[in-house]
Structure formats: structure tokens, C-alpha cells
Amino acid sequence: MTDIIADSLTRIRNAAMRRLETTDLLHSKTIEAIVSILVEKGYLESYSVEDLGNNKKSIKVVLKYDDNDRSVINEVKRISKPGRRIYKGRDEIKNFKNGYGTLIVSTSKGILPNDKAFELGTGGEVLCSIW
């Protein structure tokens, strides 16, 4: 597998479309940082890191639904891909979907949502968007 971020986003998207309660993702520090931002922003209910033994881990994600049993996530999309990296400056990541969506940006200060990256005055590689 070449793109673990795209795989994780696809697993979340597919589980939400099937209205599953939980889904499992492959573990990496990057994926854990992205999932923690999604929980902080209210797109996911919670997550936990599980040890599978043999030096392997997975991330169990609990999906979030509204009162009408529809997923809180309307769209999740991978922006920067291994074949084509997309970088944005501080001013270009200020607003996404008029504040209803979130860009997840890999900066020199770590993986951050677009509003925190703007506050810190840094840009970076745009990993994905969600709204």
C-alpha cells in the first residue's frame, strides 16, 4: 500500500455510507494525528489505539451520526497525493467552505487543522479536506 492516508479516509467514508458503528484503521502517527483532529472537530465520536501484538497496532474509530441517523461527514477527500503534492500558504488556508469544513495541514509545527495553522502563521502540505 502506497498511501495509508487515502486508505484510512476511504475506510471512514465507506463505513459512514454503510452506517457502521466502528471501523478499524492501520496505525501510524500521521493517521493518529488526523483522527484526533477529526474527533476534536466533531466529525468522529472517539478513537482508541489497540495493540495487535507482534509490534502492530490499529486504530478503532467510532463514527458519529446525527439525530436522523445520517453521518456527520458529508465529504472527506484526499487533497495532496503521493504523485502530486499540494502546498498552501498561510493566507490560502484561512477559510474552507466558509468555516463549515476543515482542511488538515501538515506543517512544520505538526499536523494541524486549517484554523490553528492560520493562527500560528504557517502553511504547509494540505493532506485532506472534510466537511
Descriptive account of the structure:
- By secondary structure, the chain is an alpha+beta fold.
- It has one domain (4-130): 2-Layer Sandwich (Dna Ligase, domain 1), CATH 3.30.1490.
- 25% of the residues lie in helices and 34% in strands.
- The protein has helices at residues 4-17, 29-40, 114-120; strands spanning 22-26, 44-53, 56-63, 76-78, 87-88, 102-107, 110-113, 124-130.
- Strands 4, 5, 6, 7 and 8 form a five-stranded antiparallel beta sheet that branches. A three-stranded antiparallel beta sheet has the order 1-3-2.
- The model has no long low-confidence stretch (mean pLDDT 93).
Summarize it.
The chain has 131 residues and is of the alpha+beta class.
Topology at a glance:
Blueprint: H1 4-17, E1 22-26, H2 29-40, E2 44-53, E3 56-63, E4 76-78, E5 87-88, E6 102-107, E7 110-113, H3 114-120, E8 124-130
Antiparallel strand pairs: 1-3, 2-3, 4-8, 5-8, 6-7, 6-8
Strand content: 25-35%
Helix and strand composition category: alpha+beta
User: How many structural units, i.e. domains?
Assistant: 1
Gyration radius, rounded: 15 Å
What labels describe this entry?
Dna Ligase, domain 1; single chain; alpha+beta; 3 helices; 3-stranded antiparallel sheet; 5-stranded antiparallel sheet
